[in-house]
Write a structure and sequence with these properties.
The protein has one domain: Up-down Bundle (Four Helix Bundle (Hemerythrin (Met), subunit A)), CATH 1.20.120.910. It is 62% helix and 0% strand. It contains 5 helices and no strands. The protein starts with 8 loop residues before the first helix and ends with a helix.
Length: 123
């Protein structure tokens, strides 16, 4: 774990667990919206089938993002258990406390995150 005295790992763990529980609770309520769209216009009510399909697509994408975020949180919790929390997975340097305060699931320091972003940009 990072030797940074500002890094309160227990507080980060608590925050990550809270975020994880919140996302899991939201996932339980969001499953209804991602169900297949009924073709029977009488069951859809005043909404058009296209509106229902658009809502379904948004719900599916929201669920995909929620699952991805849960994965990041679980990875961060594992890194805490393995005493690797607070270090960049790319360069091994300590991740700045202000960065972790904003995103406790961050895996990269700001420099490596910027490099990864630059590499992902289309040329």
């Amino acid at each position: 774990m990072s030797d940074d005295p500002e890094l309160d790992v227990a507080a980060y763990r608590d925050r990550l667990i809270s975020l994880k529980e919140e996302l899991e609770a939201i996932a339980e309520t969001g499953a209804e919206a991602a169900r297949p769209v009924e073709l029977d216009q009488a069951k859809v009510g005043r909404l058009s089938r296209m509106d229902a399909m658009r809502s379904q697509a948004m719900s599916i994408e929201t669920e995909r993002r929620r699952v991805a975020e849960l994965g990041r949180i679980k990875t961060a919790l594992t890194r805490i258990e393995e005493e690797e929390f607070g270090f960049c997975q790319s360069c091994g340097e300590a991740i700045a406390a202000p960065r972790l305060a904003i995103d406790p699931a961050a895996l990269l320091c700001i420099d490596c995150a910027n490099k990864a972003e630059d590499l992902a940009k289309p040329r």
